[in-house]
Write a structure and sequence with these properties.
Layout lengths: L4 E2 L8 H4 L11 H12 L2 H6 L9 E2 L6 H14 L3 H7 L3 E4 L2 E2 L1 H5 L28 H11 L3 E7 L6 H9 L1 E7 L2 H13 L4 H7 L5 H17 L9 E2 H12 L10 H21 L8 H26 L6 E5 L12 E6 L9 H4 L1 H7 L4 H6 L7 H22 E11 L3 E2 L2 E2 L2 H12 L3 E13 L2 E10 L1
Helix pairs in contact: 4-7, 7-8, 9-12, 9-13, 13-14, 18-19
The structure holds S-adenosylmethionine.
S-adenosylmethionine binds next to strand 6.
């Protein structure tokens, strides 16, 4: 599976690994060879940095130990090593760079619910409990490896809850997210806009004592929203415009409309988060009343926003602009050769019903789900036909990634081969086989173990394809 090929036209991504002559890069299971090599070597830091620096001045985060993490740490380092000041600002896996704490150290201190170490759920990543988010830390390292910055565009054509865009925005590179589900397009837009909220102003104007009437407003809105069934087509509308339309034509008029749009949106997201908690935690020992969830989430969101505001100020971070469009990964609204890198994760085969997953959210907003079922990858068709349609869609989406990528740009696709009808799917292998047919000049599959398990999945892959 860990197949690599390279047409020899240009230097490959893994040249720096290959240069280490003690590693047999032609071995079939390259990851195990690498793993054995690292165990022998014992000191991952030397492997990553070479012997160029005083190792006492560099330190990985204490929980960085998986092989894929070390590989990514080396990859991000190789791209950015000429400028250690920049590396300190951008690294995902280093705690200490040249004797100074990295920015990720401070950023991952902006704590969120469900956070594990420095890997995930920090900043606004944890806002809204969407199933299937990938880890921000890993995405940051991939963006670093791709070498995107400033006006370069990082694209996520299966954006989900916006993890890629949050990371791109915080390291200071432009990004575009495409998502077929209107509810998720607005959730992600709000998560990104929340990074820019001036917390002191927000907290001065919205008090805990205002919460009962705000909660009541959103609860009463349900009926109002459902009277206006929303059949939004995915026509590449901007999520910002969808939010404006939502407030103008779907929510009832009230005191809440006097708040700035960003605050209203944030309160809506807190309500949607509470709705999700209330739906999923019913009957468990974490059950609470809907209003209580709303109150708790408000106070936890506030803590995150306060801490993000202070941290960004301290580090002088101004999140870079991003664009979220309600569209399809199979028909990207982007020019040929226009993006520097793609970082994405399509639905893992037909295993998860993304409409059912977020039905409470879609129903609340009054969004018609029939169209979604017809357009969502992995949900189209019946029984056996479903897998075939999934395969066609994934192939088409990889072709689209190729089309919009700039020459030498990388697409990083995170995907797991889940079990469907008792059989393990093999779409990772298929993508690796399609890659040269589509035109990619290099491809590499990096294995990533999954702790916790989804659909009997013990590991997934990050597929790196270079145009
Ligand atoms: C695995 S999730 C992505 C999760 C994301 N990486 C995150 O961190 O939140 C896949 C997403 O693809 C979306 N999707 C499905 N079909 C799509 C299509 N045709 N075009 C764009 N997005 C689509 C689904 O709605 C879902 O949100």
């Amino acid at each position: 599976m860990d197949r690599k090929y390279n047409h020899g036209k240009k230097a490959s991504l893994f040249d720096f690994i290959k240069k280490d002559s003690s590693i047999d890069t032609s071995a079939k299971d390259f990851n195990s060879v690498l793993s054995m090599h690292l165990e022998r070597e014992i000191d991952p830091l030397s492997w990553i940095l070479g012997h160029n620096f005083n190792k006492r001045h560099f330190e990985l985060f204490e929980d960085v130990g998986q092989i894929y993490e070390l590989q990514l740490a080396k990859m991000e380092y190789e791209t950015l090593k000429e400028n250690l000041e920049l590396f300190k600002k951008r690294t995902a896996y280093f705690k200490l760079v040249n004797g100074e704490k990295s920015y990720h150290y401070f950023i991952s201190m902006v704590k969120g619910k469900g956070q594990i170490g420095h890997t995930n759920q920090y900043l606004t990543h944890w806002f809204y409990p969407y199933k299937g988010k990938f880890h921000g830390q890993m995405i940051k390292a991939i963006i670093n490896f791709i070498g995107a910055s400033g006006e370069d565009i990082i694209l996520d054509p299966f954006m989900g809850s916006g993890t890629t865009l949050i990371e791109a925005s915080v390291v200071g590179t432009k990004s575009v997210g495409i998502e077929i589900n209107p509810a998720l397009s607005i959730v992600s837009q709000i998560k990104l806009d929340s990074l820019k909220i001036n917390y002191p102003e927000f907290s001065e104007n919205i008090k805990v004592s205002d919460l009962p009437r705000i909660f009541k407003y959103f609860r009463d809105a349900r009926e109002y929203l459902n009277e206006r069934k929303w059949e939004i087509e995915a026509n590449n509308q901007n999520a910002k415009d969808i939010l404006i339309e939502l407030w103008e034509n779907h929510f009832q008029n009230s005191f809440i409309k006097d708040y700035p749009l960003e605050w209203r949106n944030l309160l809506l997201l807190i309500y949607l988060h509470a709705l999700s908690d209330y739906t999923y935690l019913k009957g468990t020992n974490k059950e609470r009343s809907f209003e209580e969830f709303f109150r708790i989430n408000f106070s936890e969101y506030s803590m995150t926003l306060n801490s993000a505001y202070k941290t960004f100020k301290q580090l002088n971070i101004i999140p870079k602009e991003c664009t979220i469009l309600l569209g399809s990964a199979m028909n990207l609204p982007l020019e040929n050769n226009s993006v520097k890198g793609v970082v994405t994760s399509p639905p893992y085969s037909i295993a998860l019903d993304y409409v059912r997953n977020d039905l409470h959210l879609l129903n609340y907003l009054g969004i018609d789900t029939r169209r979604l079922r017809k357009e969502m990858v992995g949900l189209k068709g019946k029984k056996m036909e479903k897998l075939r349609m999934y395969e066609e869609d994934i192939r088409k989406s990889v072709e689209e990634m190729y089309r919009v990528l700039r020459k030498e740009g990388w697409a990083a696709i995170v995907l797991g081969d889940v079990v469907v009808n008792g059989k393990r799917t093999d779409f990772c292998k298929k993508i690796m086989e399609w890659a040269p047919e589509i035109g990619f000049v290099d491809a590499y599959a990096m294995k990533r173990p999954i702790l916790g398990g989804f659909a009997r999945l013990r590991y997934e892959y990050v597929l790196f394809l270079q145009k």
